[in-house]
Structures are given as C-alpha cells and as structure tokens.
Amino acid sequence: MKPPSTASATVTRQQHLDLYYFMKLNRMLEEAMVNLFRQNKIVGGLYSSLGQEAVSVGTAYALEKRDWLAPMIRNIGALLVKGVRPRDIMTQHMAKFGSPTKGKDGTSHFGDLEKLHIVSPISMLGDLIPVMAGVAMAGRYLGQNIVAMTWIGDGGSSTGVFHEGLNLAAVQKAPLVLVLENNQWAYSTPVQKQVPLANLADRAKAYGIGSYVVDGNDASAVYTTARQAVARCRRGDGPILIEAKTMRMKGHAQHDAAEYVPREMVEYWKARDPITRYEKFLMDEKLLNVKAKAEIESRISKQIEEDREFAESSPPPPPELAEQGVYCDGCHTIEARWERSKKEVTPPKSSVVPVWHVRNFDEAQAAAALDLAAETAAGNGARPALDVTTMPQAQTLERPRTEKIAATKSDRASQVPSARANKHKGRR
Ligand SMILES: Cc1ncc(C[n+]2csc(CCOP(=O)(O)OP(=O)(O)O)c2C)c(N)n1
Ligand SMILES: [Mg+2]
User: Fold this and answer.
1) Which ligand is nearest to the CA of 157?
2) pLDDT at residue 365, rounded to an integer
3) Which domain, by its residues, includes 283?
4) Mean pLDDT of the chain
5) Are residues 60 and 178 in the same domain?
6) Which end of the chain is less enclosed by CB atoms within 10 A, N or C?
7) Is the pLDDT assigned to residue 179 strictly greater than 90?
C-alpha cells in the first residue's frame, strides 16, 4: 500500500489539519445520522460516504469562498467544507421546520444560493453537469472569475446528460471541475460491467478537455490535484475531469446490505481507509499527536451532540407551510382551496393523519386493474387474474371518515399517505 502523497511541501500544516478535521467531522456526523435513522427519526433516504471522505473534502477544500459547488448524495463532506453546519444537515434529513428547506424535503435536496454558493442536488444522475456548466458560464459573463464544481458517480457517468453537459462545458470553455467519484459500484452493478475502460477519466479525451486520475483515498493527493484543476479552470483552460478511485464501503443506502460485494474487496479497501491512512501520515510527519487527535475528536463530538440535541428538539413544519413556497418565494399568493372547512379536518376535531389528495386516483387504479383482468381473461397476460374487489386500495386508510360527509366532486379524490413508506426509505 502506498503512503498518502507526500506533497506536504505544497500543503501547509494548517491545511493538512483542516483536511483531517473535515474528514473526521464528515464521518462522525454520518455516524450520528445512522443512529438517528435507526431510531426512525430521519424521514428520507440516508446515503453513506464512509471511505469516500477524502474525495468530498479534498476537492471542495480547493475551492474559494466565491466559487460554487453542487453536491451529490455522498458529498456531505463538501457541504461541511463550504460552511454548512452539521445541524442544518441533521434538521434537513429530519424534515424539521428550521431546516434549509423548512421541512419540505427529507433528504439532501437543499442549497444556499445567497451566501455559500451551493446549488441543490438534482436526483436525476448527471443533470447537475449542464446546470453547473451554466453556473460557470454565468460567472464568466458577470466577470466574477469563479470556478464551479460538481460530482458524479461511475454509474452516473454513463448517462446521456453526462456527455451532453461535458461537451457543452468543453465547447464553452466553462470553468467547471467535474469530479468523477469511481467507487466501484453503481447500486449492485460493478464498474467493469458498465464501462469498458480502465480509467473513466479517459472519457475527457472525447471532449478535448484536461483530466486527472487520483487515488481517492489519499486526502492530500486529492486536494493538490483539485487545487491544480481549479487553478487551470480559473485561468481559462476550460473544464477538467478528475477521476477519484475509491470504494463505496456500505450499501447504496441504509436499506441495502450490499451482500453482492465480495468480502475481499471490502477488506482491501478497509486497509486503505482514508482517515486511518491520513492519521498515520500526519503522525509520521509529526503534524499530529495522540493528544491533538483526542482534542479534535472531542471538539467534533461536542459539536455533533449539541447539533443533534438542537435538531431533535426542533419542531416539525406547521401544516400551513404546505401551501407556501411551492412555485415561488413570495411573488405570488397561493392559497390552499379547502373543500371542507379546515377546522373540521384538523385536530382536535379530527384525528385524521395528514394525506395528499390525488384526484381520481381510485378510479384510475380500479380502471387499470379492470384492464389487466380483462387482458388476463382474454389470455393475453401471463399474470393470474386479479380480483379487483380485494386489491389493496390506498384510500381504505381514510374511507370511513370520508364517506360520512356530503358527496362533492372532491370526495372522489383518493388519499395516499403523505409520508414515504418504510420500503421506500433510502431509494431515489
Ligand atoms: C438518470 C438516473 N437514473 C437512475 C437513477 C437511480 N439511481 C440513483 S443512484 C443510482 C446509482 C448511482 O451509482 P453511481 O453513479 O456510481 O453513484 P454512487 O451511488 O456509487 O455514489 C441509481 C441507478 C437516477 N437517480 N437517475
Ligand atoms: Mg458508484
């Protein structure tokens, strides 16, 4: 195993310690969030960047305050480096009122366009690339000399929009650093089964842009590579693709035990854990000692504990918030149309669990089931005939209460639970 890069001549002691601090913060925060998830306090999916901390931290650390980034699911480390507080990440995942999205999202879809220059993640893999190419171009038109950075997985690099976005950035010479986080897996697909290349960075050649391949588990190598890429972008060389080779040490998300990953592969990468390796390097170089390490750990623990307390005791959003900020942030007045009086359908008069109303959902579902039954009866379908009457219907949850009131058009609206069911946890 190679030791971490000894580019220490160009990395100051403080920078080394910052990189170490943010990687530890990244890991310890995610550990705290796993506990919250297991206590059922996290509303949406939770993705782990265990073993990939050096990629997020090392690349984002190369950016300046004026620069912009857009994280993907495993880039909590980049958010922390850019200045997002652990409490904001916790309240966001717990869908609390005080979270960056005021409780309207329970995963990582938040940004900060005003102060921190963070564009919210987009779940459709690859879509952030043209968006961030646009941010980079806008910065140039405004004379800001900024660099934009975003991340993509090995799987995401096979989407059409990856190629379209990179081509656009290349032809426009947009100052965009694209970090291709090759963690060997896209869900359960190993990288060799989806790309016939040893280095995904070779894709840069097709667009005539610069690229690097870096050991993604070596924080100072990642940082010095990203720093060089950022400098080249800033001086007008156009976009750069960095492939960071690393390993996804957990499943795709919390629900995935990743039994398809060979044990030897996990062991191989475990022995190259970026934090353990960096710690050893810092100690060998006398940049860190046991006492300083314990101090950093206790500072982080204290901060995470305070932020966890804060997040857990924060209130959920009030129901009225649902009608605000959906399409705009105050330029239009959007009012909910209550088909029944609000008092009647909210506590204490009613104990009904809040639900989304999907107009004509039940008719559509029943019609689809009838079609299927007819198709099966005609011998066209291989599936067994369905008994429409016993088909589980989402509206049975609330049906007794709904039937008591006078029939209006909206009563035909079926009701679907608003919270994501457990089986959806962790999927996107
Ligand atoms: C365009 C698109 N296709 C499929 C998905 C579903 N999906 C979400 S994450 C994921 C796997 C991504 O793998 P990779 O890009 O390697 O990132 P990693 O999870 O390894 O960080 C898939 C298939 C999606 N979000 N967007
Ligand atoms: Mg991957």
Assistant:
1) 1
2) 54
3) 13-323
4) 84
5) yes
6) N
7) yes
